[in-house]
């Protein structure tokens, strides 16, 4: 009876905190993680077996097990009744938050280290080089200067070579792990790493700069770097570029990056949540870019509505994402139902296509989740 009751209470407590845990971890690991976390807390009570808490190391954007923070399970009360379920779930969530805030034992030496939950982490289109100091291009104070200065980041030079042309940006990585507060804001997927979709979108943008010349350009869901938008801002001769994400910590990082690069046009960053786009006062854009933003089912409608409201008549959105089950097709269907026109382009670059073919020999490679497909979304003229 005690085991049965514990199982029922475990399921109830797990459901109570599922939403919070899902905000912390990507879909690929969250479901198994919160089950393991809660199972361990319920059934190992009293064994004084320390549970190694997870952390996310932002310098390489990795989920890992940290030996720096261990939880003594006798600190966590056993669930004694149905009414206590939510209270205990909150306490366990607080423990997880404390673990996430703990410092890492060590920092990877480079953002290109290949330890990641993604397995296939790159199409090898980006090269990185650590910089000895912060490469300040602008010294004017910003709203973030006192709280999160450039000096608190490790700086890297990110390079993309298209033919004989080399394109470079200075990108900062915060010198600390994420806090639970950082991770719980809006959608945190951009916080995790340079995903293949962002990498290939940046490569495509650098190889097709004429698409952006003289245009107003917006990036949606650009994460910690807004890489595609910033390459465009530096090299394409755009009229203006606005780099956005729904997560404040991501935008703060991009603000620091703006101070460490010289751009050829007006370049800004801002928090923009797709559901609020219709009320946003920043106007419409000729070109919108977005990488790997299709997999949250509950956010896809907001993304489509955001594209429809932010695109100028005749405007073009370049959306890069893997097929990932039915998510890409669902996005196309919703976009067309909203009056937008979509064209799916699997082979948008001979270089990327050849790298895809080479990766298919890798047992870890799954075309469905690893190969980014380009979707050209256009808004008809009035």
UniProtKB/TrEMBL annotation:
One Gene Ontology MF term: calmodulin-lysine N-methyltransferase activity
UniProt key word Nucleus: yes
GO biological process: methylation
EC number: 2.1.1.60
Localisation per UniProt entry: Cytoplasm; Nucleus
The entry's keywords: Cytoplasm, Methyltransferase, Nucleus, Transferase
Enzyme class: transferase
GO cellular component, one term: cytoplasm
Superkingdom of the source species: Eukaryota
Protein's UniProt name: Calmodulin-lysine N-methyltransferase
Organism for this UniProt entry: Dendroctonus ponderosae (Mountain pine beetle)
Highest classification ranks of the organism: Eukaryota, Metazoa, Ecdysozoa, Arthropoda, Hexapoda
